[in-house]
Amino acid sequence: MATQIASTPVVKGSAAVKIYKEANQKRSQASKNGADKLKQKFGKKMK
Description:
This protein is mostly helical. The protein has two helices and no strands. The longest helix is centred in the C-terminal third of the chain and has 18 residues, at about 30-45. The model has no long low-confidence stretch (mean pLDDT about 90).
């Protein structure tokens, strides 16, 4: 059975800087609170 491997896209310039900044930004307190609420609701189901 043959498989195909897709190449990794290369991003350059201002688009790459934007992606890098979004990936490395700190989580806000509201985001942390939302994650905690979801953890409380679904924590037992995830184990």
